[in-house]
Amino acid sequence: MDYFGLAQKYDTPLYIYDFDKIALRYSDLKQAFSGRKSLVCYAVKANSNLSLLKFLASLGAGFDCVSVGEIKRALIAGAKPYQMIFSGVGKRDDEIKYALTNDIFMINLESEAELERVENIARELQKVARISIRVNPDVDANTHPYISTGLNENKFGVDIDTAKKMYIKAKKSDNLQPIGIHFHIGSQITDISSIIQASGIVSKLLTELKSVDIDIKFFDIGGGIGIVYNDERDVSLYDYAQGILKNLSGHDITIVCEPGRFLVGNAGEFLTKVLYEKRNKDKRFVIVDGAMNDLLRPSLYNAYHGISVVGKDKDHTICDVVGPICESGDFLAKNIKLPICESGDLIVVKSAGAYGFSMSSNYNTRPRVAEVAIISNKDKLIRKRESFDDVIALEKECLE
């Protein structure tokens, strides 16, 4: 890839996404479940760029949304309402109304209180809400605690007994139609045994529900498949799919999955420019124009991203790669080996396609960066770089 050409054309910092890689990942996942009816609903939170959503919609993807803003994004990008799921542990009344009014395929419920709210709002609107219930199987995903969601100590979902009660109540309601069952135990999972174990637990509940004439048509296995950032191993999609399908033997049901990071994570890179190097006694710092407001994962999770200097591969010494933000937590990497850098050198941060731009902010009044897609080896701007005027626009309107 011509990083210097992209930097000259679009400036830095910059996000770059390879759409061809994304299409291949989507195809591989669909193929893994080719023996069954399946719906791949991309988790919009991972990367919500409109051009990316439009591209995925053109491939046939549905969308998993966790806010009304994400629903609106997906609809603008051409998503089909009957392929959209509305998830999230805390939905406002206006968000529920919007989802019902726009005939979103399925609302994923996370509590008894939420079931009552959705039922009441559906009644007010004289509609029938298609629902699924997020079951918490109490399975350890063996991932970072901030992105573990399948244990009782996590805020997500309900236990098996509560789920049974909710399904029975929904079955009796004139305004609720239970059509799905859902679980999601965490993100960046590279040991698929935990997902397969969870699918077995939830499959038993599915059997019990069908025995009392609650006709569940969609088995939503969530997302969470991990990617390679450093020394992880790629998940075998065949083993992943076959393990889940084995637990669903005898059930005629559509598989729904909600990948985010898996589709876009390794397809994205963050390009940043070296400003200069600095030494504090024996400590070496490479100071770049990208910062924690642009890519938060290293600061938030102490996450590892592979880093390289474009065109240089010799004389590696230990350094921290840090940005201009006035926080000690502003770093892209710590204690890694890089070549000696000069002002103007370009640094590529790998595996930045997921939870990169979508978690960025204007901290320190830094405009958010531009995003570029690579499609068939051609670059295309898919989000303009913010200007200072963009950053202050809503505040400026309120100045007296």
Automatic annotation (TrEMBL):
Residues with the N6-(pyridoxal phosphate)lysine modification: K45
Domain Orn/DAP/Arg decarboxylase 2 C-terminal: 15-353
GO BP terms in the entry: lysine biosynthetic process via diaminopimelate
Keyword Amino-acid biosynthesis: yes
InterPro entries per the UniProt record, alphabetical: Ala_racemase/Decarboxylase_C, DAP_deCOOHase_LysA, De-COase2_C, De-COase2_CS, De-COase2_N, De-COase2_pyr-phos_BS, Orn/DAP/Arg_de-COase, PLP-binding_barrel
Catalytic machinery residues: C326
Cofactor(s) of this protein: pyridoxal 5'-phosphate
Residues given in the record as pyridoxal 5'-phosphate binding sites: G224, E258, P259, G260, R261, Y355
Protein role: Specifically catalyzes the decarboxylation of meso-diaminopimelate (meso-DAP) to L-lysine.
Protein name as it appears in the record: Diaminopimelate decarboxylase
Origin organism lineage: Bacteria, Pseudomonadati, Campylobacterota, Epsilonproteobacteria, Campylobacterales
